[in-house]
Amino acid sequence: MEDQRKKEDVIVEDKIDDTTEHKKEKKSKTKEHIEKLENDVKELKDKLLRNAAELENFKKRMNQERINDRKYASKTLIGDILAPLDQFDRVVNMTTDNELLKNFLIGFKMINDSLYQVLIQDGLKEIDALNKPFDPKYHYAVEKIHDANKPDGINLEVIQKGYLYKDQLLRPAMVKINEWSEKDGEDK
Fold first, then answer.
1. β-bridge pairing 168-171 and 163-165
2. Could you read off the pLDDT of 130-178 as tens digits, one per residue?
3. Does the N terminus or the C terminus of the chain have fewer Cβ atoms within 10 A?
């Protein structure tokens, strides 16, 4: 009988040990599951914050593009009418001996000046290139001249005026640039 009791005690102890191990195993799995869920929550919060920041940046970028679109809305039109205006400017500034033609040219010059004034008020600005150092951002060199009496790298002649519209380059100035060298007393 005592043997029987010992066996029952061992069985009960085994059951208790199994239950304790099972509980420990269950706690461990629950802990792992909780840690996994916490990591998932962290990742989702991070994604949410990134997406919110990305959305905010997108809104700012779109707003800035809208502002720029309004600010530079006239840029294409002004760029397109510069060539005819240049031709008109050449015509009104030509010299003549005919008095009747001079009177007409004076009237056309007033119109030409008015047109340029409207464009200047809208943001057009002529690039000052004559006798200035060559700057490839604003000048387009068409020809080189070798004049040792003038400084090297200076624009000696403006062939076509260049313009900025607000703070953007609309058309570079076409220039003749002075380029020479004193090396061995010879020009380049």
1. antiparallel
2. 888 888 899 999 988 887 778 888 888 899 999 999 888 999 999 999 8
3. N
Query: Using the 8-state DSSP alphabet, how is residue 181 labeled?
Result: -
Q: Which uninterrupted H or E stretch holds 175? A: strand 173-178
- CA quadruple 128, 134, 135, 139: dihedral sign: positive
Cβ count within 10 A of residue 138? 19
Phi, psi angles (nearest 5°) of residue 116 = -65, -35
Q: Is the pTM of this model over 0.70?
A: no
Residue 184 confidence (pLDDT) above 50: no
Helix, strand, coil fractions of the chain, as percent rounded to 5: 60, 15, 20
C-alpha pair distances (Å), 55 with each of 43, 64, 65, 101: 18, 14, 15, 64
The predicted pLDDT at position 56 comes to 94
pLDDT digits (tens, 9 = 90+) for 21-46: 777 777 788 888 899 999 999 999 99
CB-based contact 174:159 (threshold 8 Å): yes
Q: How far apart are CA 105 and CA 85, in angstroms?
A: 15
Pairing of strands 173-178, 168-171: unpaired
14-34 per-residue burial string, b: 16 or more CB within 10 A, e: under 16: eeeeeeeeeeeeeeeeeeeee
- Cα 8 to Cα 66: distance, rounded to the nearest angstrom: 85
